Amino acid sequence: MKIGIENEKLEFKKTTAELKEGVISMAAILNKHGSGELYFGILPDGTVNGQTVSEKTLRKSTGRDSWDSEHSEKTIDQVGDDVLKQYIEQANKADRIDFTFDNRRDTLTRLGMTSGDAINNAACAVFIGMPLLEVQMAVFATKQKLTFLDIRRGGGNIRQLIEIAIKYIIDNTRWRVVLDGSVQRKEIPEIPIEAVREAVTNAFCHRDYRSSQNNEVAIYSDRIEIYNPGRFPDGQTPEDFIRGKVRSIKRNPNIAQLLYYPKNIESFGTGLQRIVSFCTDAKVHVEFERSDIGFAVVFYRPSNHINADNSIGDHITDGDVVNGGSDVVNDVVNDDGDVVNGVANDDGDVVNDGSDVVNTDLSETQQKILATMKLNPRITAKQLSEIVGINHRNTQVHIKALKEAGLIVREGSTKGGHWVVFQGGRKNG
Q1: Residue 61: how many CB atoms within 10 A of its CB?
Q2: Phi and psi at residue 305, to the nearest 5°
Q3: 94 pLDDT band (50/70/90 cuts)?
């Protein structure tokens, strides 16, 4: 079948392999005539040849080729052998790759991440890292982004950044200790770590790497936000994915594949479902926030971990210790392994009996200093002054009073040491 012959306003190309030539021809037609038509899958004499168009070809032909498939400035030789060996071993263990590491070139080629000597952006981001690829992390004193207790920035490749972000969250959240009669005590995080890992991994998997923004972890007194500069797919909602109504939409399909092989992600398109499932089991409220420039997963911290003034304080119990399953009397175990007596209310929750760190004899400033030291044991007196809002000399006066009351002690050197906060006003020793 023939559909006509080429003319000044009609151009035929056999396949999309001639895409570049077709675009050049079309530009010339438009410059001369202002309009024209370009067809692929047609022979020069007008015979319909046809062509099967893959999703990758479609993305490329419409200018929607993914960032992670583009060539990076790095070469195969710049990928470390140890990094690749560890990666392949994990992928083998997960039973998602059936070949072993031989050499860098063969391994990266079999993963589909090379073009000649160059590697694509996905391989560069996952195995090497990039200059602007970072994660910003901070702990704030209250519900607002006003006073921070700690702020950090991490760099590295994507897999390293995932672990850095998860560790930061683990180190800055509370854990309950439950004794149920077994040999080992059970430590339960306020936010399920499985949900945190899923959210952090998805944040790096789906972010827009063309954006100048970085991934962020923000820990407030009432919530934890995990943000990525990647706009949620237009026309879709998080609920669509949670209910399984739509299939996975991969902004970075090569990065997603590289994270799938070693089981950094379980399967495609199930991240939000898994987050909701983990949080439902742990009775933790989670929300998903969309904006014009990014997406955030927000975990709300259980209310029994939050002070009445919305700050994070030492009266917060680190865990309920249930004796022999009894719901009549519970004890609380602090970080130092000391048992602080408490009683349970009708719901089995620990009610502070006044012997915990909240001491009515302390001033509001001293209580804030204790809360800050507990959250960030390595904080300096100068940083405390800025957070509490008093001068350095007065801060030292309060610190001295807290030491004399047996509520705190300084361990280690001046620069490398840390604060130990004692619950219940116990003196050291």
Answers
A1: 15
A2: -105, 5
A3: very high
Alpha-helix runs per DSSP H in 97-192? 104-110, 121-123, 158-171
User: Which of 61, 80, 97 is the endpoint of a domain?
Assistant: 61
Confidence of residue 108 (pLDDT cuts 50, 70, 90): very high
Whether residue 183 has pLDDT greater than 80: no
Single-letter amino acid, residue 317: T
Q: 270 is in which domain, residue-wise?
A: 135-246+261-303
Task: Indicate whether 327 belongs to any domain.
Answer: no
Question: What sign for the dihedral angle of Cα 209, 211, 216, 222?
Answer: negative
| Co-location of 204 and 295 in the same domain | yes
Residues 40 and 91 in one domain: no
- Torsions phi, psi of 15, nearest 5? -145, 170
Structure tokens at 387: 């957070």
Residue 411 placed within a domain = yes
* Closest to 198 (Cα-Cα) out of 274, 263, 253, 261: 274
**Is the Cβ–Cβ distance between 359 and 425 less than 8 Å?**
yes
- Is residue 379 predicted with pLDDT exceeding 70? yes
Which residues are within 8 A (CB) of 175 and not within 5 positions of it... i.e. 6 or more apart? 187, 188, 189, 190, 318, 319
Q: Is residue 110 part of a domain?
A: yes
Q: Say which range, 43-52, 169-178, 205-214, 403-412, has the weakest mean pLDDT.
A: 43-52
> What gap in Å lies between CA 387 and CA 314, rounded to an integer?
16
Same domain? 112 vs 94 = yes
Single out the residue in 85, 103, 128 at which a domain terminates: 128
More confident residue, 275 or 249: 275
- How far is it, in rounded angstroms, from Cα 83 to Cα 100? 13
Number of structural domains the chain divides into = 4
Same domain, 238 and 298: yes
Beta strands in 118-235 (DSSP E): 118-120, 134-140, 148-155, 175-178, 186-189, 215-219, 223-228
Whether the pLDDT of residue 98 is over 60: the answer is yes
Report yes or no: 355 and 424 within 8 Å, Cβ to Cβ. yes
CA atoms of 185 and 197, how far apart (whole Å)? 23
Is residue 4 assigned to a domain?
no
Nearest C-alpha neighbor of 139 from the set 163, 177, 174: 174
Residues 181 and 286 in one domain: yes
β 350-351/223-228 pair status: unpaired
In this predicted model, what pLDDT tens digit does every residue of 336-360 receive, in sequence order?
333 333 333 333 333 333 333 345 4
